[in-house]
Write a structure and sequence with these properties.
Elements lengths: L4 H8 L2 H11 L3 H13 L3 E4 L3 E4 L28 E2 L10 H14 L14 H13 L9 E4 L1 H13 L5 E6 L3 H9 L3 E6 L5 H5 L8 E4 L13 H14 L3 E4 L23 E6 L11 E4 L2 H14 L5 H10 L3 H26 L13 E5 L5 H10 L2 E2 L1 E2 L12 E5 L4 H19 L16
Parallel strand pairs: 3-12, 5-6, 5-7, 7-8, 8-9
Antiparallel strand pairs: 1-2, 4-10, 9-10, 11-14, 13-14
Helix pairs in contact: 1-3, 2-3, 4-11, 5-11, 6-7, 6-10, 12-14, 13-14
Pfam families: Aminotran_1_2
InterPro entries: Aminotransferase_I/II_large, HTH_trans_reg/aminotransferase, PyrdxlP-dep_Trfase, PyrdxlP-dep_Trfase_major, WH-like_DNA-bd_sf, WH_DNA-bd_sf
GO molecular function, one term: pyridoxal phosphate binding
Length: 451
């Protein structure tokens, strides 16, 4: 249905601005009004009664067949072939401690009465366990500062929806965890990058032209580089974020994965009240548990809780009770396998150095991945060649919102040493073929997120 230009101008708000623009462009006012309406329909401008019209940033995309995430769906699903999967870094089986925790949790379920099972903020027992987890680590925390989520990815999605809207800005490291990039892009946000460690952060949060709505960092065992921020850098980042009023999100999912003898600084939240901590048991226990959390100031948790309740009335109670059983012992559980993880890390680096001496694979103090620089070519095309030779690696371009890191691939070292040896052999053969011109197109990207 057509609309009278004057009525449309009333809907647009400040008609005088349209009159001025029309005069400047020497066009009819109706043309300007029509242009404004077209921009609104495309999602490029936002209008609110009494506050005029403002730029919304890039248009919101419609439904997509793919998130563009840099991993193939068949790398996450069960396979019948013998491809060695070094692309997705996560434990490949639930540990015995998880099974024991579930048995204790199921026993607790038998005693529950007067509880309909909906806990949008999380079960009280797990919220208390998360609060005690942070308090033990030097960050005094109360249960009402904790929101339980269905894994760390849901936590990032909630934070993106709460703080970063269309036309807003998320400040991230380059490279970084690709699931975070997808969460911010899903909100049609502009993603601004700084190097790993957020060097230049103070200037970025004071930038009046593009002040970030949220900043995201992995301070401990960074994914993918394995870096650990020193205490002084943590203090500086937290102080700058606090002074600018910018929420600083610290992804602590890999924080418990230190190698033996490696000390890590206190959590970033120990240095500032505006720090928002995201955690989960996906890397330290098992991804199938699907239990994560957000630790933040009470007003932030209240806001996120209201947002969560609109989309999800709460997580699986049995899983939360099992997580509450595990969390007091997570450091001990990780410590039991830390020596083996370091041995596998050392073994993979030795095999790569022997078979691919021109590759750069720096050691890391913990975590699960190596960030490998190729001497030439690019990670996207090499990943396709590697897959054809029976090993899956993650190309670096999908982890870098700046458009860089194309010469990198990410590989994990969680497999047993025999499997890692096989992987190195296949990578060497793939590299030889790649150097000889093996650059055939690989399979298309899927909906799956890299982990």
């Amino acid at each position: 249905m057509s609309m009278d230009p004057a009525a449309l101008a009333d809907r647009l708000g400040r008609w005088s601005a349209g009159r001025a623009l029309a005069a400047a462009l020497t066009v009819a006012r109706g043309t300007v009004v029509a242009a404004y309406e077209e921009l609104r329909l495309e999602g490029r401008i936002l209008r609110r009664q009494g506050s005029g019209t403002r730029v919304a940033g890039p248009p919101r995309p419609g439904p997509r067949e793919s998130t563009g995430a840099p991993v193939f769906l068949h790398l996450l699903e069960p396979r019948e072939d013998d491809v060695v999967l070094l692309a997705c870094a996560a434990p490949d089986a639930p540990p015995p401690a998880l099974l024991a925790a579930y048995r204790r949790a199921l026993a607790r379920l038998e005693d529950i009465t007067g509880d309909i099972g909906y806990h949008p903020l999380g079960h009280a027992r797990l919220r208390r366990a998360v609060a005690e987890h942070y308090t033990r680590r030097g960050v005094p925390t109360e249960p009402d500062q904790v929101l339980v989520t269905n894994g760390g990815q849901q936590a990032l999605s909630l934070l993106a929806r709460a703080f970063v809207g269309p036309g807003g800005t998320a400040l991230v490291e380059a490279p970084t965890y690709p699931g975070a990039l997808e969460a911010f892009r899903e909100q049609a946000a502009y993603v601004r990058t700084l190097p790993v460690g957020l060097d230049g952060f103070e200037g970025a949060v004071r930038d009046r032209g593009r002040r970030p709505d949220l900043a995201y960092v992995t301070a401990t065992h960074h994914n993918p580089t394995g870096a650990v921020l020193p205490a002084l850098v943590r203090r500086r980042l937290a102080a700058a974020a606090g002074a600018a009023g910018v929420p600083l999100v610290d992804d602590e999912v890999p924080a418990d994965l230190a190698f033996p003898g490696q000390e890590t600084p206190p959590p970033l939240a120990a240095y500032g009240e505006t720090v928002v901590s995201v955690g989960s048991l996906s890397k330290s226990v098992w991804g199938g548990l699907r239990v994560g959390w957000i630790r933040a100031a009470r007003p932030v948790i209240d806001r996120l809780g209201r947002l969560r309740a609109v989309h999800d009335l709460g997580g699986n109670v049995a899983a939360q009770l099992a997580a509450a059983e595990l969390l007091p012992h997570v450091a001990e559980l990780c410590g039991k396998v830390a020596a083996e993880r370091r041995a596998r890390h050392d073994h993979l680096r030795t095999e790569l150095a022997r078979r691919l001496p021109h590759w750069e694979a720096p050691p890391v103090p913990g975590g699960q991945t190596l960030w490998v620089r190729l001497p030439h070519g690019d990670g996207d095309s090499f990943a396709q060649a590697a897959l054809r030779h029976g090993v899956a690696v993650l190309p670096g371009s999908g982890l870098d919102a700046s458009g860089g890191s194309r010469e990198f691939v990410r590989v994990h070292f969680l497999a047993d040493q025999a499997t890692l040896t096989t992987a190195a052999e296949r990578l060497a053969r793939a590299w030889t073929a790649y150097g000889a011109g093996d650059t055939e197109p690989g399979p298309p990207p899927s909906r799956a997120l890299a982990v």
